[in-house]
Amino acid sequence: MAPRLIITGSTGYIGARLATLAREHGFEVVELGRRSEAKWRIGDEPAASDLEGAAAVIHIAHSWATGPETTEENNINIAGTVKLAEAAKAAGVPRFVFASSTSSRQEALNVYGRTKFRIEQHLAASFAAPIVRIARIGLVYGGPRTAMYGLMAKLSALSPLLPMIGLNRKVQPIHLDEVAAGLLALATDESQLPQTFVLAQEKPISFATWLRILRRSQGKGNLHFIPIPLTAALLACRMTKLLPLIPTVDPERVLGLAGAAPMESGESLKLLRLNLADPLVVLSGELGQKGGDASRSEAEVLLQYLGSAPTEAQVQRLCEGLRREGLAPLGLSPTLIRHPRLLALFEPPANRTQHRLARALYLADLASEPERQRGKRADFFKAILTISSDVLLLPLRALLAGRYR
Length: 405
Description:
Layout: E1 4-8, H1 13-24, E2 28-33, E3 38-39, H2 48-51, E4 54-59, H3 76-90, E5 96-101, H4 111-124, E6 132-137, E7 139-141, H5 147-158, E8 161-164, E9 170-171, E10 173-175, H6 176-188, E11 196-199, E12 205-206, H7 207-217, E13 224-227, H8 230-240, H9 251-258, H10 266-271, H11 279-286, H12 291-305, H13 312-324, H14 334-338, H15 356-368, H16 380-400
Parallel strand pairs: 1-2, 1-4, 2-3, 4-5, 5-6, 6-11, 7-10, 8-13
Antiparallel strand pairs: 9-12
């Protein structure tokens, strides 16, 4: 008999993917919600028959009806989550997984973050505490272009010039499939694990970098920003509700971004055996750009820029090296693909060895080495010309190198 897994919020962005993954792993999934056979909504007392015999409850559902002025006593998310967890404990369910957020903080600017924090505190002090596992989830991307991910993908593709707040704020992306796998691992692992986990990239990136990744993955060019203050952004949120053809932006999303701060996730990912993928590589495939074709074209361009007539062996070696180092694809523009010599404008100074383009060029140099003609003497005048051009281009490279960092 298949083990039963109870999921709330199974019609949402994360819940729908989790339900599919659980069924693929042989679980009998019970979807607890308004539009399912097991009728329930946050705040209701769940039927004991729906809970008994379940391997775990994964609680993702969240009511957005609570406003900033709602008192904690009247916050249905807090009281409803604790009620569900305690009912699961009373029914003998061994694990209750609560989907929280990396915005969960006492001082969070948005109601969502403060509410998640208070739910965590109430769960830790409740009768259900022994079975509770909390998953603080980072910035989720991938899959259907809905929720916050869909909004960011649309905004990043609208224009090469984007007004935005929080550009230096650090975010921790995680793919939808990785979130689902993490939640399923928390629900099924019978070993003694810590109560709180962080499901997010171990190395945070700036929000500006994240938006550029989204745009580059859609085959667009570079993205430039107009920094705007928080008050102006909140006013713009109200305007998006009035103007047609512009994605509506919830102020809660903006406030969540304005207060974003990274959380340490390395230990959590290790315990759950999650190896998170490079977002650029994954999104390049999902958003319409064929990652393999793009990487091959870029490999050829890099080799041509270094003066090689690329052979199949060189291209294959370089593609493998770029993929292994998380540099595929780089996101080179169509203009650079057509005119490799223009890479001279973007090549970073020699001391910037961690620059993505510098690392890619180093790999290209290694990939072309076995086929080089040995013993060929360097052309003196060509060497002088190369050095002179490097000196002249240095100021321009310092300005443009940031594009492919």
